[in-house]
Specification:
Layout: H1 6-19, H2 33-36, E1 53-58, E2 64-67, H3 69-72, E3 82-85, H4 92-103, E4 109-115, E5 118-119, E6 122-123, H5 126-131, E7 137-138, H6 141-145, H7 160-175, H8 181-197, H9 205-213, H10 217-222, H11 227-233, H12 235-245, E8 267-271, H13 281-296, E9 304-309, H14 313-316, H15 319-333, E10 337-343, H16 347-350, H17 355-364, E11 367-370, H18 375-385, H19 389-394, E12 402-407, E13 410-416, H20 423-426, H21 429-439, H22 452-458
Parallel strand pairs: 3-10, 3-11, 4-8, 4-9, 7-8, 9-10
Antiparallel strand pairs: 1-2, 1-13, 5-6, 11-12, 12-13
Length: about 450
């Protein structure tokens, strides 16, 4: 310690005598930021609680990340719906599958999956369905002709209002435009006649097509128009519906609903992998399945239901289908329905023909999970979803299995964890084949230890 100047020592002593002892002056310390960080206590944003299913681990704090829309609804979540975004090969599929498997641990859960991807003649969810003893509902035009699965848009389980709304949606999706008043009237009177007269069996689409081609005289008289006018108004409608009866989509919807479809099973998988994903058939199919489920599956029985849709841009990018699902989301929220939409890019939906409807559906998704995206896509996603700047900046740097989670403004970076028992069900042969180049599923650096006990301990009902 350096010697003080004698005059300075006398001054310090006199000051201490008058005012008391002065505080010792600390000499500055030179160090690195890596060493200085130990001076500060570690901090982390609060989690979502400990009730629900474990997703994985928060990257920055190391804490377990637990999420459940049903537990959070009404407290931290204004709506239980969820949007999952990200480019292929970053872990979206693994997250969806493990989330469903973990939700099914609870006895009051039920899940419907629209499985639009597959390989070797089966959908991606085939292994999980098989492990749970579930037979997927495989919609295939060719198989339907040989006694395969049929879903009847005129099933008596669907209300007459729902049937008419579904018929309009099918026609509008196929035509790419809304029905005009005259065509809508022709469809309405044909449907009303079939509903009133066909009572000894399930009405089918062929009945509607026949009545559109051959309208009854009283339908024309009620509007004080010529019968030929009513026939002309319904011609385009009949041609569109004829595609479901005799065209490339025949077999799936032109007969009574197949008996034996178990709507009480914990998992219901609609295998759409045999349908061309780029054809008009996919949005038509999703519209039919969506309305059919709304009227036959969603019931006020206090069950918590999850409706997971892969390739959801088929729904959100069509104005007519999006309107149906928008109503389903609003209606289902009162009955405990959580809608999970999985898409690759937000631009797939917000720049499409149904931008208005897409924005409304996105607004209802209070949970958003974003996997790695390119920088420009990440910036666009951040603007639309209102993500903080730091989250937008790290999205392009995320590695497979890690995602940004935004749960109604609570933003975390989460690493998804997979158990040993889940691994063979989550990683299909197709996924493992792609893992070496762009899937990344075999590059998770998490040790392959069993997390079953951890899941049982942390997933509190």
């Amino acid at each position: 310690m350096p010697m003080l100047d004698p005059l300075a020592a006398i001054t310090d002593a006199f000051t201490s005598f008058l005012f008391g002892k002065v505080e010792t002056t600390r000499l500055p310390v030179r160090t690195s930021t890596g060493q200085a960080q130990a001076v500060y206590m570690p901090t982390a944003a609060p989690g979502l609680g400990d009730s629900g299913v474990i997703i994985g681990r928060e990257v920055y704090s190391g804490k377990g990340y637990i999420y459940d829309p049903f537990q959070l609804y009404g407290q931290q979540l204004p709506a239980p719906h969820w949007l999952v975004l990200g480019e292929s090969g970053n872990g979206k599929s693994a997250l969806e599958k493990t989330y469903v498997l973990r939700q099914l641990r609870f006895r009051d859960r039920q899940v419907v999956v629209l499985d639009a991807q597959g390989e070797d003649g089966v959908g991606e969810w085939n292994l999980i369905a098989k492990a749970l003893g579930i037979t997927p509902i495989r919609l295939d035009p060719m198989a339907a002709l040989d006694g395969g699965i049929k879903l009847n848009p005129l099933d008596p389980a669907i209300t007459t209002t729902g049937q008419l709304a579904l018929l309009r949606t099918i026609i509008e999706v196929a035509m790419g435009r809304g029905l005009d008043e005259r065509s809508g009237f022709a469809l309405k009177v044909a449907h009303a006649y079939v509903h009133e007269t066909v009572t000894d069996r399930q009405p089918i689409l062929t009945d509607i097509v026949d009545r559109l081609r051959h309208p009854m005289a009283d339908s024309a008289e009620s509007m004080n128009v010529e019968l030929e006018d009513v026939r002309a108004w319904g011609l385009d409608v009949a041609l569109v519906l004829d595609r479901l009866v005799d065209g490339d989509l025949r077999g799936m919807f032109d007969g009574p609903t197949t008996a034996g479809i178990d709507l009480d099973a914990p998992l219901i998988v609609f295998d759409l992998s045999h349908i061309d994903r780029n054809s008009i058939a996919m949005p038509i199919l999703m519209a039919i399945v969506g309305v059919w489920l709304e009227h036959t599956w969603i019931r006020p029985d206090r069950k918590k239901r999850i409706f997971l849709v892969e390739e959801a841009w088929h729904i959100i990018n069509s104005p007519f289908v999006a309107q149906l699902f928008q109503r389903l989301l609003k209606f289902g929220r009162r009955l405990g329905l959580s809608f999970v939409a999985v898409v690759h890019h937000l631009s797939d939906v917000v720049d499409g023909a149904a931008a208005k409807e897409a924005a409304a559906i996105l607004k209802m998704a209070s949970t958003r999970t974003i996997y790695a995206q390119k920088a420009d896509e990440a910036r666009a996603t951040g603007r639309v979803l209102g993500l903080p700047r730091w989250a937008v900046e790290i999205i392009p740097t995320l590695t497979p299995g890690i995602a940004v989670w935004d749960v109604n403004g609570n933003v975390q970076v989460v690493k998804h964890l997979i158990t040993e028992s889940e691994r063979p069900l989550v990683y299909t042969d197709r996924a493992m084949t792609e893992a070496s180049d762009d899937d990344g599923t075999d590059r998770y650096d998490e040790p392959r230890v069993s997390l079953d006990k951890q899941l049982a301990d942390d997933a509190v009902a």
